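Please fill in the sequence for the structure shown.

STRUCTURE ENCODING:
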């Protein structure tokens, strides 16, 4: 894995009315042709994403979107896709033609403020872009000519400065460690493991331990007992794959803190407490109730796939009868979630924090309990309380300030 994964890069979403130069701007920022440009309004249909470096900040994802004032039937569908892209936005660039904003642009600014999404207004098509600092309706303004590239360098610097001051890189685990002991990571290498590499949550958590100056030891569950005998003191924390939680729990002395990759990812990506509350909804689940299982990305299902086989089997065993399951993959979360008695979400390793928080918000607004794979499996293995103890220690310290969380209007 040579590149910073998209899920941990801040997402910058380019918005605006049709034909204001959004695609010309993404091309200018990327210094290559990423999106189609034409004088025909409605040229951009689906959002176009591009991973780039914006220095002196670093890796980001830029997203070009369809114009928000396209009122044709197809245009309204495109606007829905733009709305969906906005759920990922850590920063937005509102492209406009003049400093006097159109009522729709004013409305967009209000909606962004409600969602706590920072916005930079980019006035495009300026023959002589001025670099003087300015503001429109409380948002900073930068003038550019996206066609000639004038002002684009200053825009990059402005974006980098905004990200440095507003985008917070949250810890995955290092805030739970003193740095004095060894953390043990247990990663089963089974049929589901990808060939020749570790999966993203394992890599990210390992990197976070190193960032915090900690020491890590990685082994399979089959070597855990041997690994423990090699340590001169008990590990400070053991982090395991949820699927072998029980086996690991049996090997470890009960006073060694134990959690899972999924619990740590759930804490990092959104609201761990909301997901734990979702477990309480199992008591109300009855045969033939509808359950939505959500996978954040599309991937081939395996023979004993966790979402298609393992979780349905556990839930049906719990209610003592058949349940009606629906599976949603990738970005398809917005189907009417009110129809379900429970949502079971994957670990969301491919989604950024904004998007997962937005999904949790949508579930809360619809009044549908939501739980994730890791929390659910820990519950069924009887180790939920133990796996939460290390993570909950810091929840009470409000490590993640409310400003880092996006709320939908
Ligand atoms: N003169 C001038 N023309 C520009 C500038 N930026 C974009 N254009 C032109 O404006 C037209 C629309 O540009 P696009 O980048 O496709 O606009 P868009 O906002 O992506 O449009 P949709 O995808 O249809 O919403 C094209 O003909 C561009 O060449 C600029 O800074 N100056
Ligand atoms: S389904 Fe979810 S947890 Fe699995 S790889 Fe995709 S985003 Fe990550
Ligand atoms: Mg476009």
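FILLED IN BY: designer on duty
SEQUENCE:
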């Amino acid at each position: 894995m040579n590149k910073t994964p998209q899920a941990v890069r801040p997402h910058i979403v380019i918005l605006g009315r049709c034909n204001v130069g959004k695609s010309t701007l993404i091309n200018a920022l990327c210094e290559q042709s990423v999106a189609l440009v034409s004088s025909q309004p409605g040229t951009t249909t689906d959002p176009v994403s591009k991973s780039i470096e914006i220095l002196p900040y670093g890796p980001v994802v830029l997203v070009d979107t369809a114009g928000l004032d396209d009122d044709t039937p197809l245009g309204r569908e495109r606007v829905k896709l733009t709305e969906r892209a906005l759920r990922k936005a850590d920063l937005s660039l509102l492209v406009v033609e003049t400093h006097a904003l159109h009522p729709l642009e004013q409305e967009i600014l209000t909606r962004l403020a409600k969602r706590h999404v920072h916005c930079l207004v980019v006035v495009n098509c300026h023959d002589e872009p001025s670099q003087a600092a300015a503001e429109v309706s409380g948002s900073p303004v930068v003038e550019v000519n996206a066609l000639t590239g004038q002002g684009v360098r200053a825009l990059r610097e402005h974006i980098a400065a905004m990200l440095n001051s507003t985008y917070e890189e949250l810890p995955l685990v290092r805030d739970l460690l003193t740095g004095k002991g060894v953390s043990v990571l247990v990663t089963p290498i089974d049929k589901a493991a990808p060939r020749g590499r570790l999966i993203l949550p394992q890599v990210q958590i390992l990197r976070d331990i190193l960032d915090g100056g900690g020491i890590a030891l990685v082994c399979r569950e089959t070597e855990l007992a041997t690994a423990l005998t090699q340590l001169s003191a008990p590990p400070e924390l053991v982090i395991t794959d949820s699927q072998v939680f029980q086996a690991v729990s049996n090997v470890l002395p009960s006073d060694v803190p134990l959690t899972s990759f999924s619990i740590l990812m759930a804490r990092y990506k959104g609201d761990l407490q909301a997901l734990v509350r979702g477990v309480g909804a199992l008591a109300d689940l009855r045969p033939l109730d509808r359950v939505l299982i959500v996978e954040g990305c599309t991937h081939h299902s395996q023979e004993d796939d966790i979402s298609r086989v393992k979780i349905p089997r556990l839930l049906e065993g719990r209610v003592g009868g058949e349940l009606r399951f629906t599976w949603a993959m990738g970005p398809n979360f917005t189907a009417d979630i009110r129809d379900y008695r429970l949502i079971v979400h994957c670990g969301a390793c491919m989604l950024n924090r904004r998007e997962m928080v937005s999904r949790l918000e949508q579930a809360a607004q619809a009044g549908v309990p939501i739980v994730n794979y890791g929390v659910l499996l820990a519950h069924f293995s009887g180790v939920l309380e133990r796996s939460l103890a290390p993570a909950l220690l810091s929840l009470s310290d409000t490590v993640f300030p409310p400003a880092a969380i996006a709320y939908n209007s």
